[in-house]
Amino acid sequence: MALPAIQPYPMPQAADLPANRASWTPDPKRAVLLVHDMQAYFLNAFAADQSPITELLAHIRALLDRCRALGIPVVYTAQPGEQSREERGLLFDFWGEGINKAPHLKHIVPELAPAEGDIVLDKWRYSAFRRSDLAGLMRERGRDQLLITGIYAHIGCMMTAAEAFMQDIQAFMVADALADFSAENHAMAVAYAANRCAVVLTTAQTLEQLEAGADDAGAVAAGADGAAAPSDSAQRFYDVDALRAQVAGLLFESPDAICDRDHLIDEHGLDSIRVMSLVEAWRGQGADVTFVELAECPTLASWSELLQAKSTADASV
Length: 317
Hints:
With 317 residues, the chain is of the alpha/beta class.
């Protein structure tokens, strides 16, 4: 009853996602980011350095960075490493001892480690709401939206989305920030969510909509003060320092280690999967760039010039 060895499969793209029945939009003033069961024990079932794990880690990292910057609460779930038979309950019948067999792997992977101020909840059942204070924490903070990331899409993540719906909490499944036993399981989970209990988005779409919500809130606040409030994120996402932080997050490096004119592919090992995730994210922010354009001159300085030109051109159309 051990976890299966999970074969690599392509992370779903925006074109692969089902149509949503609901038209909810994530709002930085209402949302909580959930990082679901990203523990070493569960990730060890995947092939390292291959899809979907490479995108999974990069996309959750991007969401963590932006949500923290926007003041969105971050909640992690993690199964305890030592559970009695009574505590495991019916999970034992399906999964046996589970994480009890490897309590040394109970930690959340270091690439996504909780930061000061983040909340870590013990996870006891498929749903993150069962035997936890997740709903209470959200109510205390006036939050009624849950951005769901992590593993496994068709088990805990889907069950959490369904229970959020039943508690009148708007759930958002970030489809390319989830992973599963197979592409088929992954597709089933997002299809069920989109049709029955949640809105399904990509990471780029989620970031774009959160930024729009932050811009709207800033404009309202500025209007009350009688002054304009320019959107720093909209004006500066292509600045070299902003790009440096974004790329460093994908590479799990310190930003200080990446110079403006370093060849990001040859010198830092930036692979095509991560470049494509940048393409999607920047398109979501209004810069119509292509993989080929980024790969031709992969330096922060060149990308900053390209993105600024593309953003200016798009704005003038």
